[in-house]
Design brief:
8-stranded mixed β-sheet; two-stranded antiparallel sheet; 3 helices
């Protein structure tokens, strides 16, 4: 199991709000459910579940300021307008974890659809080993975790709910 960290700890842990900036896309906004829950991504969101037969699953320890921060989940985020879920997941995983798109092969997708908002998990197999790299302020750490140890971590609630079904489809 390997772990990568490198973002200034004060940025990853000390900020109460996400860092802003000119790089924000029109999809970067909250969507509010009728019951008051909020979901990130005007056009939905997508995440990349990277599985490697020997290394396990690549997980992201989410920055404290993020929604359900200080939990483990998948690199991912808001979809851009007219962006496919697969393209969004690959882009977000590259931005947040340095996942090289040319070293992964799409296996399947899993859709969580609330009607007004959706999240697509794009499951890929890494065709070669690679070292993840923290390249923005959204991660405290990145780690390859054996699939049978994933549920031992404090998981993002959405990922925790979907993990059993996703785990069953990995083999």
């Amino acid at each position: 199991m390997t772990e990568s960290s490198g973002v200034d700890a004060s940025l990853a842990r000390g900020s109460a709000i996400p860092p802003g900036g000119a790089g924000r896309d029109s999809g970067d906004a909250w969507v509010h459910a009728p019951d008051g829950r909020k979901f990130w991504g005007r056009f939905g969101a997508a995440g990349l579940l990277v599985h490697h037969p020997h290394l396990g699953v690549l997980l992201q320890h989410r920055a404290v300021w993020s929604h359900f921060g200080d939990t483990w989940g998948l690199p991912g985020g808001a979809r851009h307008e007219n962006e496919s879920a697969i393209d969004a997941a690959l882009r977000e995983a590259r931005e947040e974890a340095g996942v090289p798109a040319h070293l992964v092969q799409v296996k399947f997708t899993s859709l969580f659809d609330l009607g007004f908002w959706s999240y697509t998990t794009v499951v890929v197999e890494a065709t070669q080993e690679f070292e993840p790299v923290i390249s923005d302020q959204e991660s405290i750490a990145l780690r390859w975790v054996p699939a049978d140890s994933v549920d031992l971590l404090a998981l993002h609630p959405g990922f925790a709910a979907s993990w059993p079904a996703l785990r069953g489809q990995l083999d």
